[in-house]
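Review box. Two proteins, two foldings.
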Amino acid sequence: MADQAQRIQLDFNNVLRVGGEHGLTEAELDAATAQAGQAIAAVQQRRQGGDLRWMELPYADTSAVEQLAGEIRDQFDNFVVLGIGGSALGNIAVNTALNGPFYNSDNQRTHPRLFVLDNSDPEFNAGLLQVIDPARTAFNVITKSGSTGETLSSFLFFRDVVQRAVGGDKLKDHFILTTDPAKGPLRDLVNREGFRSLPVPEGVGGRFSVLSPVGLLSAAVTGIDIKQLLAGAAFADEITREADAWQNPAAMGALVQYLLYGKGVDIVVMMPYAQRLKDVADWFAQLWAESLGKKVDRTGAVVNVGPTPVKALGATDQHSQVQLYAEGPFNKLVNFLRVERFATEGALPAAYENMDAFSYLAGHSFAELINAEHEATAIALTEAGKPNMTHILPEVNAFTVGQLLYLLEVQTAIAGELFNIDAFDQPGVEAGKVATYALLGRQGYEQQRQQIEQAQGQRNPRATV
């Protein structure tokens, strides 16, 4: 097993301290560990059956990604990801965590700048042209199906921009298409026009794809050690195979949230106390919501189940959201992310020694301050009867980030087993895609368009003010 000093720990003491009314007791957890063990076994059984191929990503060959990343670094100043949801959020989270929030503005940077365009907002897409030279930019178009409307719209837009900048004969050099290895519109373009491409591995859904070429290429282009990223994920894989939930942080995290959901705690707040981990909360929100928000369970019964994820940032949101968490309804579990050792401590110098508002800070550091703020918030919530738990990262590096992402993915899979739902489909998302196709007149969706128009005709004019 890898160095235990890099192991992420899950501390749920404050769930037990809150106790049985709004938290949990040790006896309640003990009584449910057999159910958790069954959920762990079910996930591993599905994996052995070839059902959960994202679980094998830590062991994949990365040579094709690394070779392509090297070519991009040699040719371009900017790297732009065109994707949405699972084709974008992981890229953003990994980049912020490992390259830092100011990566693009670092004058000492020796790798291409990274931009992720994950929306069809016209000003967002067109605005990129104010800060990049298209002739010095590579675009990674990511969609598993090859037919995601938002992504293909961005592709069409920037394809035209690049063609006008460099000419049609060099167009394909500027685009890498990451899509299904065998089928779909983008794969057809790769086969027909010779675009460089990477596969989204068979059986890997978007929200579980960050450790595949979907997320690894942008990481490698910007200088992140993707082998260490995957090594951390492999370490998490080893830990999360443990059959005893008391020794398995993914299983215990899932079990705590499942049992609290049964007590009306139906919101989980992901709150990193580290700016670098800010976008992990955004990535987690999709993972948790899209996986666990389901209308029916596996028997077909209507359950309308699903804990709602909310993202927050410590210490920023102590001054915006924590008032609600401390004194509002007893329906939230706060999941903190804490970093024990920061790369920079940020020592605070002495000044204004005769003024207590300043003098008590002297000799401390930003690192001490932010961790004290985490501890203080956890104490305040616990005293208010609000359950909270903390994932503790020894430090932020490629190994621990890969470990954290995989850990949360397995936690989600185990939670799906506990809720007895399919954590790997997204029919609610597909319904929205179909409606978009119909509104824009895509062939084959005429009936859906007619239904939408009929519904629109029933609008109450008094309902718009």
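Next protein.
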Amino acid sequence: MNQTQAFHHRIDAALHNDQLRHNFRAALTGIMARRAEQFPDDGQLQALREQARQVRANSLVGQPDLLERLEEKLIANGIQVHWAESPEQANAIIQEILAAAAAKTVVKGKSMVSEETGLNDYLERHGIEVIESDLGEYIIQLAKEPPSHIVAPAIHKNRREVAELFRQFHPEIPYTEDIDELTQSARAILRGKFANADAGISGVNFAVAETGTLCLVENEGNGRLSTTAPRLHIAITGVEKVVEKLSDVPPLLEILTKSATGQPITTYFNMISRPRQPGELDGPEAVHLVLLDNGRSRIRIDEELLETLRCIRCGACINHCPVYVQLGGHAYGTVYPGPIGLALEPQRIGLDKAGTLTSACTLCGACGEVCPVKIPLPKLINRLRAESVQAHHSTTPLAGRGSLRKPGEAAVWRLWQQLNSHPRLYRLFTLAATRLRWLTPGRLGGWTRYRSAPRPAARSLRELARREGFADE
């Protein structure tokens, strides 16, 4: 089964799952409403978006220098820095750090970059127990599923489905479908894990080059516990998360939380600059940061596609996507779903492996309108669509470029171009199409899977106009 067939199979399964679609609609409607409440003044919103865009754009332009400054500051602060070009290298580095510390149990905060690398499976194969401490991540870990959303990983499950998971894996806990009681049960389960874990692993929302500070945004307190309770803390993030100054963080934080969950600010905002110092009562004895490239440097080469890396992982584009709300995240079959996934994944893993994703877009423009850092997502998705079928040579460093090109389809479009470029040929074609309309086939590939085949009219527009006395120009 090729990527197109596999994608269509997942789409078909999602569209036939009424409960799944109901879950997404119920959850996303509320999130969109809360976001709208946070931005009552459109003028202020646009000003904040532009400020956030400039911060991220400047960070990307100066990224090589900023990463060097970040490393220098982190080392001076006592944090060890590791560079990883690929997911395999990142996983190996983390496993080696854990092995050197004789760590066998890990509590893990939310991290989409670790989903890129498949870190959990890798560590478990090496005999290390990994417990997801974010409630949503813990739920899907029990279900043995990947996240279906970059902010709310278990958004595809309702409270009854969560209750069934808890009954299956924790039969000692009284069955309940009450959300507050389920949350309290999860807290009781995880509390002991924090106290006894040998190491904690987390993601990073922003890494500040000026001060060597790792910023972590969260609501549940699990991130703070994962990064302070164990004796060892390992953070992993993409190289694009670096920002220049500490003063760059407040506008990004403000628009991130409001865009992601409709909150003025999250419950917790962690700033990590060093391991535990002499005389301090808590905090890890050692802190490591793994900076992952995984194709990001290749994306930076193209001035237009570079804009993809401005993303701050708020999920607003996903929440407002009419396709995502019908399919859910798992239908995409990639780490990042929704509009940002359509723009990022074909670049990250190749058009030959993920180029088909770009067809899951109506180009309605909703994602571009809500993106807090003004990434022109529809434009980028359309660009990638074109790149996936282009035949001419290009210096664009996109893996799998032209891999979805179909010779027959390309020939049809070349013929269409010729017909519309030569008036006499076009008139001859319309004359033949109208007179032989009864020969129109009833099936026209994927177009007629859900639609009736269009049939030419009995007379062309030009003929009708002449009949009414309008002369040709």
